[in-house]
Amino acid sequence: MPEINEQRLVEQAQSEPQAFAALYDHYVARIFKYVYRQVLDEAVAQDITAVTFEKALRHIRRYEAQGSSFAAWLYRIAHNELMSYYRRQKFLLPLKWLGWTEGRGAETAVVQREQQSQLHQALAQLSAKDRDIIHLRYFEELDSEEVAEILGCSTQNVYVRLHRALGRLRQQLEMKGDWRLETGDY
Fold it and tell me: Does some domain include residue 186?
């Protein structure tokens, strides 16, 4: 992804709506992937992504950086749209995990597939809030400050919520078998 001058593009888009296209082009794939991993339905992910960018364009004039990135603002809009979608659907869809990886032996792939299945099942047992914070921090690889901005809480609260969510995930995994969750810095 080429480096962009995000602040300059945002300022341009605030005065000239057609300049928003550069921001859209830069972020649409990231936002779509985030949404798709949550809903596992391409058409729904496209719809939610489209609504996310439509709302961003509609409210771009009110956007102020205030120490957070434009990307974090977009993720927050997408997160809110996902929550609205889940409320309308009255159920939560679990995360989908990648399958086979090239260059691995069959035995390793089978073991990895089993572990992914166990992780998938354990995540499905967690609350939506726990799944969401784990997903944003580890699968979207956002830093704690960006996660805090998206979830509308303090960075310290992210650390506490993430620690507790990982603890509950660890319990779920340990109940399912001989699994040990390795956690590093978060």
Answer: yes
